[in-house]
Amino acid sequence: MPASALTRPGERDRLSSKFAELDWRVIGLLCILAGIGTAMLYSIAGGHWQPWAAKHLIRFGVLLVAMIGMAMVHPKWWFHAAYPLYGVLLVLVLMIEFTPLGYTAGGAKNWLNLGFTRIQPAEFVKIGLVLALARWYHGHSAQEARWSWKLLIPVGMIGVPFLLVAKQPDLGSAMIIGLTGAAVMFMAGLSWRVIAAAVAAAVAVIPPFVMFVMHDYQRNRVLTFLNPEADPSGTGYNIIQSKIALGSGGLMGKGYGLGSQSQLEFLPERHTDFIFSTVSEEFGFLGSFTVLACYVALILISLRIAALSHSHFGRISAAGMTAFLALFVLINGAMVMGLAPVVGVPMPLLSYGGSTMMTVMIGFGLILSMRVHRYVELPKGQGLF
For a 10 Å CB count at each end of the chain, is N or C smaller? Predict the structure, then answer.
């Protein structure tokens, strides 16, 4: 649509104008990644749509429509919902710990059993946290964002869900929450002195935290990461099999549906945490490089969308959601390559799982909303609503 047409009063609020302003590169890349995920789940199941591929594809289709719908939502509604949404999600996390609705799976009490379905509030807290932090920074000056006693407020907003989720214990989600919050504070203009001090403190705290605070199975994961060959049939089995799958694919891969590690079930959690290893085994370096290139393109386009937003809330929230996606990719990629401990972080849109896909698609709904409404200015203000 010509730029002059968008300058007419009310033109930008027309649904057709908003639809034309969508970034179809983002939508296309999301479809490609979800399509690759569906194809890999079909292959892993031995050439069958059940039990994963069909559900993955249907879920993505429904969430894609919902994402485009969320992109039509004016940023003022995201803005006003930020604090209430953050509060509601914190309550849901607390309900896991203090009500009978908490449900344990995989050694962690991180599910909320609602009867008709089960959800992981920790996944959605990440979205609420980014919105709440963006709302807070929108109402404060650049100097306060750089260095001020008021920074204790966003630190607390990050620290509370981090500690609650870490207590479940869900180390992967807690790590994503903490790093996403830290990334938002960095992009908002945090002083380099504070960053250096925080890094030094983390280096000092991590060793005693690993030895005296972590649960035994979490500590074993860290020790296994340092030396997986110490217990190749036990705690080191997952990462060793993942490395075998990664290396055996070579340049071009073994071929679709011909991966021995995944097809013969040597590779654990091949449909969730280690699906990227299956991609590497069947399609080799070229296939895995193509997947990573799609993620990089998605991240760069999203950062560009964030930079074009006229409101500080739009810039911070879109950049925060982008950081959230990037952390998923970085941590999962490092995990399957043996460069990080196995912490149960899936590869977005490739891995099977409803909560993670829903969180990612909601995040891109927000990013596209900031793209469609990039010219919107939001009022400053430090009140709750």
Answer: C
Whole-number Cα distances in Å, 276 to 29, 249, 338: 17, 12, 13
Q: Which two tokens stand for residue 244?
A: 């075998």
Reduced 3-state DSSP string for 246-275: HHHCCCCCCCCCCCHHHHCCCCCCCCCCCH
Burial class (CB in 10 A: 0-12, 13-18, 19+), 8: exposed
Percent of residues in the chain assigned helix, strand, coil, to nearest 5: 70, 5, 30
The owner of tokens 């609705």 is: 101
**Where do the domains of the chain lie?**
37-372
Name the band, by pLDDT with cuts 50, 70 and 90, for residue 381: low
Report d(CA 121, CA 125) in Å as an integer.
6
Task: Using alpha carbons, select from 88, 93, 273, 91 the residue that is nearest to residue 168.
Answer: 93
Amino acid at position 112, single letter: L
Residue 44: strand, helix, or coil: helix
* Cβ proximity of 299 and 113 under 8 Å: no
Cβ count within 10 A of residue 145: 21
Quick: pLDDT tens for 217-232. Answer: 777 777 777 777 777 7
* Phi, psi angles (nearest 5°) of residue 369: -60, -40
Q: Please, what is the Cα angle at 70 between 69 and 72, to 5 degrees?
A: 70
| pTM of the entire predicted model | 0.89
**Helix or strand or coil: residue 100?**
coil
The sign one gets for the Cα dihedral 299, 301, 307, 312 is negative
Cα separation, 26 vs 303, whole angstroms = 11
